[in-house]
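Why does residue order matter? Because the sequence determines the fold. Keep that principle in mind as you read this record.
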Amino acid sequence: MGGPARLIFVPNIRPQELLIILVIVLILFGGSKLPDLARNLGRAQKEFRDGMDDGKSGSKDTALPADDATVLKAEREALQAERDALKAQREALKAEKDADS
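Structure:
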């Protein structure tokens, strides 16, 4: 099959359903977190596309082992994600405490 890749499942989301999803996201993350979430999603999408392009252009013979900078970058990103998760958890606990008061 030489044709382009086809998606198996594409959901049919109506505007009302999309609005409900957006409201739920707003409630869960708050208005101040939405720009950060969108930015991180965009970066992840760009990195994924770059990785796919690198995989298409490179061959298995030219694959190089990860250098120290790549390893450090991955570790830094993992620590940042962990820090963000802990920060969100702390804010949720604070909001819960404030709601109880």
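The helical segments are 15-29, 34-57, 68-100.
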